[in-house]
Amino acid sequence: MKRFLSKNSIASLISISTLIAANNVSAHDYEVKVTNITQGQVFTPILGFIHSPAIKAFTLGQPAFPQVAILAESGNTEPAKEALATLPDLISGAHDTGAPLLPGESVILEFEAADGMTNVSVLAMLIPTNDAFFALNGATLPAKGTDTYFSVAYDAGSELNDESCVHIPGPASVCTGEGVSTAGGEGFVHIHPGIHGIGDLAAAKYDWRNPVAQIEITRIFGD
Fold first, then answer.
1. Handedness of CA 170, 174, 178, 182 (dihedral sign)
2. By the 8 A CB rule, do 220 and 29 touch?
3. Handedness of CA 183, 186, 189, 195 (dihedral sign)
4. Fewer CB atoms < 10 Å away: N or C end of the chain?
């Protein structure tokens, strides 16, 4: 089973994290503001975490980690949080927003970046879709001020894009499916092709043109 970290990379990650810790970088506070800039897609609770630069949530063109696939198909962040919790030397403060984010709305995640943690990732499912998600995949934390990023919608490649409500979770006003399908997808993470109206979803309402999310990372200075 694939994991956030492969066995072949453990030794190199230990070496990298040791080198980073040796730099004796002080902990800093950050705010990560996410804005949903789609017209009709809802973001499920957004998972964020501060981490070593050695870690990536996914790699384009490669199969999605099981925890990322679950998040992209159902919006469930718990398996990813559980996996991240096993890496205390490489991860700082993984948590989610606890609520969906509607189109046009914003939410802020707050973090303290521990020594040696120089990067941030955030990701969440888009609903209604089969396995679309947005992500900031290992952006470098700013030394000061605010850095702004825009995320396209990615496809986890773990579920067919049949646009059928049987395979798409809530909100109840749209779909109430199982959220996880046994039918295989493309097999690798790629840029999502959007909603085409082939199933239960109207393209005019739920399709998008990339990007789908704006992410602002701000370093917070204390008194």
1. negative
2. yes
3. negative
4. C
Q: Exposed/middle/buried for 185, CB within 10 Å: 0-12, 13-18, 19+?
A: buried
Here the tokens at position 99 are: 């609520």
Q: CA nearest 61: which of 188, 180, 167, 152?
A: 188
Unique residue bearing structure tokens 């995949």: 137
Taking the C-alpha atoms of residue 52 and residue 113, their distance in angstroms, rounded to an integer, is 10
Which residue do the tokens 């996410």 mark?
34
Gyration radius from the chain CA atoms: 17
- Per-residue model confidence as pLDDT tens digits over 198-214: 999 999 999 999 999 99
The SS3 of residue 127 is strand
Could you give all domains of the chain from N- to C-terminal order, each with its CATH number? 29-220 (2.60.40.2130)
Q: What is the C-alpha separation between 45 and 72, in angstroms, rounded? A: 11
Structure tokens at 47: 């998972």
Q: Determine the number of helices (DSSP H) and then strands (DSSP E) in the chain.
A: 4, 11
Give 149's strand partners.
215
For the stretch 94-124, pLDDT in tens is 999 999 999 999 999 999 998 889 999 999 9
- For the full predicted model, state whether its pTM sits above 0.90: no
Instruction: Dump strand ranges (E) for the chain.
Output: 28-36, 42-43, 47-51, 91-96, 106-113, 119-127, 132-140, 146-151, 153-155, 190-191, 213-220
Q: What is the DSSP letter of 101?
A: B
DSSP assignment, residue 148? E
